[in-house]
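Pasting two entries for a bug report.
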Amino acid sequence: MRLSVVVPTLDEAQNIDGTLAALAPLRARGHEVIVADGGSHDATVTLARARADHVVSAPRGRATQMNAGAAIAGGDVLLFLHADTRLPPSAASDIEAALATGRKWGRFDVTIAGQPRVLQLVATMINARSRITGVATGDQGIFVARQVFAALGGYPSIPLMEDVALSKALRRRIGRPACLTTRVVTSGRRWEQRGPWRTIVEMWRLRLGYWLGADPHTLARRYPPPTTMSAPALLIFAKDPVPGTVKTRLASSIGATAAAQIYSDLVERTLAVASDARRAGIVGDIELCCAPDANGAAFTAWRDRFGVALMVQQGDDLGARMQHALNAALARGVKALLIGTDSPPLDSAYLAQAAGALATHDAVFGPAEDGGYVLVGLSRPLDVFDHIAWSTPDVMTATRARLIAERATWRELPTLWDVDTPSDLARFAAFTPAAAAGHTADYGEAIK
């Protein structure tokens, strides 16, 4: 069996990279991923091209987008997956086993990620209703044999209830679905934005109206799509690049002036990545959190060049300073990502994964090879930075223990490397040759 996963998107820059990253194991086993975009204005298409086999444009609307994706699919089975939904690792084998029993279509059970506890009850009700009625929702990851889907003519071109209409057509033509007990995890953003009980009532009213024969176009106007999740603030911790105060481990080998220049290069590279992410809608406001103060000429130049706000780090140690910066952003009603300036591999796609993780988790971390982390993000206040022995190999381990004690949910992104020691310089020069070319004299001895 070859699976074609069709993902409809519209302004999903904060979710799509994480969704597609989770599908990478399927692609590695020869399955296919197709993104069908409905005219996104953010970086959705750019991010999708890096991780999907095909990206196709279609008129806006899940039904038309999914039909466009299905039209170019080469797999035996189509799986329609929302952009804010994650498949279980066993998805392909589960589908194959279900189809081997003679079923031609089916869906997964669903878990709804989010803060309100009632979402667990909502998911249970959705799964139970689907088993009783033989009707699946799009959040459950509907799969169907491609030939059967084509024979039905695909999704009906309606703006709402396309999943219900397809389910009913499949049920009439070929029988009830395979109801898999393995679970997809979908975002609870709609319930969180509107309130869980209000959303439940609205959904039941819509389903009742559709059952009574109301026009789907009329129903769609009563229930607008969820608003785009506000982009998190991006906080960048940086020091004034004064020789002798930054990159001191490098300075012992290449001199204080060269080390300070390398540090400045790293800061500028990080600010360029941040600016790209802001233009793509991945992050919102960018704050350069300065130490020891914000009066240095370099800070002023970076503010003017990259259009960032300057803030002063406050706190007695790194943990206190991070806690203060993150809490200040959360107090303004926005989620927050915090990064340093030492990790060349950290790019816009990595920030997109982090931003997407905050839609379903209390925290996100980007671990570093040295045992610390290059990124931390919070969607709610958490007290996890106390009593951490900073600049040791145990930073991430100790932080995990704090997260468990706080009963927090978190996601860890792929581990990255950073530039701290002379041995890291050759790696940095190879990773960013353009940066190294401008400072050959400064880098030369360390690279040798």
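Entry 2 (this is the one that rendered wrong in the viewer):
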Amino acid sequence: MPPEVSAIITTHGRPHHVGEAIASIRGELHGDVELIVVNDGDGQELRFGDEVRVVSGQNLGVGRARNLGLAAAHGQFVIFLDDDDVAFPWRISTLMDAAKRSGSDLCFGMTRRVVTDGGLVLADVPTGLSSPGAVGFRDILACAPHINAVLVRTSVLREIGGFDSDAQHFDDWSAWLRIADLGVKMWCVGEAVAEWRVHASGLSGLVAGRGQMKAHILALFDRLIPRLSFDNAEAMESARRAVAEREIITYDDYAEAIGQLRADQFLGSSECLGVPRRN
């Protein structure tokens, strides 16, 4: 029988980090899991034991590397982990339990942000949700669940074409938004299930440090708006205007801007669950 969950780690030239990520998945409490490592490095062979399946790419970039792992997955659900982050032992079991109880195709929890340099203390992400439970397109637009904490049905992620490798920095957020536009059931768990190590040399740090966050968000919205259903496209247009009018340096700036927009009743309440699923 196929496994219930495929846990996929993408790595690029960081063998000293990926071992800890693998160990954290091996330590997860949920038993029916296959572990896949996508080695998107310089061609150097990696081996981690017989229970870890290694799939090789070469400088594909994170979106295409994640899609390579998705193509190799046998599980009914998939979950991802960046190579320098760690999963908490209860991550998959908590999300699977919520997905089964709610009948959801996508379920996500919080991600604890640990700043490895600079001494900053950051709130768990995603911010912008007042309580756990059912969520819809506008919630995903407001809060951008982190890749390490999202469990998604494999067939649904494949249905929308996987991760958007041309959406700079936001290949995962683009996927969650396109899934939300299908109108499938989604659920939020109000518990941290993974740790995101934020450091200046990482992708998020580089994007913020170079002042590119706002440009990347606007580019993502411009890319998605023509592809969305009418109501969801209008919601994203409202979010786009809010971003264009504000200084957005970090993810937290975006969350604050959209939180204010929702408070002003431009985007509606978190109870809006989007349009019905299209057949």
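Dev reply: Rendering is fixed now. As a check, the viewer should reflect this: Residues 230-244 form the longest helix (15 residues).
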